[in-house]
UniProtKB/TrEMBL annotation:
Protein name, entry field: ATP-binding cassette domain-containing protein
Keywords tagged on the record: ATP-binding, Nucleotide-binding, Transport
The UniProt record lists the keyword Ubl conjugation: no
Residue intervals of the ABC transporter domain: 9-234
Native source organism of the sequence: Paragemmobacter amnigenus
Signal peptide: none
Pfam families in the cross-refs: ABC_tran
GO molecular function per UniProt: ATP binding
Length: 234
């Protein structure tokens, strides 16, 4: 098994705005994510969590410092290279972002096709398999409007995982869920993630996720101010 870090960040800084409005959002971030690890990123509102997640997710250009993702340096990477790298990642956001006019199965297939460019029949099989894993085998043909909040978020989990990502990035994936649905989603992420050797980085305030994380990183005012290794405690 390849044991090279999935993400290695050195002396990363990031700014928003220009001229007098220019404001630094991240300061001297240094970080490694090892293969298969499950890391939670916490911190107050405005501390830079989403900025860091979107830089790692190739959704922003790296301005200063080094960010190596899956062996490739993102500082100086072209737009096309960032798009190619994004195909190797899975994303889950607080709002599930499902297409309302597509069924659960079709929504998950979007993940397979967009992320892997796989053939239609294989994408269908993969979508059905994933929906089974998240406990929605009987809901493949349902539209999102006919699913509960927890079920919709489980469809979003299936969609993020169907492309077999090397790295899963999630921004408050359980924030909109009730207690039971949130626990289900966390269990799923841990179980499927560890079965596949996937690396996971989540922004969260949810103690149910923090209890299960291998590692908790705390950001404050754009700096990493805390790092708790919880391996073996979860
Ligand atoms: N597109 C943007 N333009 C200008 N400033 C931004 C932009 N995005 C974020 N910022 C600023 O960068 C800082 C970090 O924001 P970020 O969204 O990363 O924080 P966060 O920790 O994710 O917050 P929250 O928990 O509220 O989502 C904040 O001061 C924010 O105002």
């Amino acid at each position: 098994m390849d044991t090279a870090p999935i993400v290695t960040i050195r002396a990363l800084n990031h700014w928003f705005g220009d001229g007098a409005a220019r404001k630094q959002a991240l300061f001297d971030i240094n970080l490694r994510l090892e293969p298969g690890s499950f890391t939670a990123l916490v911190g107050p509102s405005g501390s830079g969590k989403t900025t860091l997640l979107t830089l790692i997710g190739c959704l922003r250009m790296v301005q200063d410092g080094s960010l190596r993702l899956l062996g490739q340096e993102l500082h100086g990477a072209s737009g096309a290279q960032l798009v190619a790298m994004r195909r190797r990642l899975g994303f889950i956001f607080q709002a599930h972002n499902l297409h309302e006019s597509l069924t659960a199965g079709q929504n998950v297939m979007m993940g397979a096709q967009v992320d892997g460019g796989v053939r239609h029949d294989r994408a269908t099989l993969a979508a059905h398999h994933l929906l089974g894993l998240v406990g929605l085998a009987g809901r493949v043909d349902y539209l999102p409007a006919n699913l509960s909040g927890g079920q919709k978020q489980r469809v979003a989990v299936a969609r993020a995982l169907v492309g077999n990502p090397d790295l899963l990035l999630a921004d408050e994936p359980t924030a909109a869920l009730d207690r039971n649905s949130a626990s289900d989603v966390v269990d799923l992420l841990r179980r499927i993630g560890s079965a596949r050797g996937m690396t996971t980085l989540l922004v969260t305030h949810d103690t149910r996720i923090l209890d299960r994380a291998d590692r908790i990183l705390t950001l404050e005012d754009g700096r990493i101010v805390g790092e708790e290794d919880r391996q073996g405690k979860g």
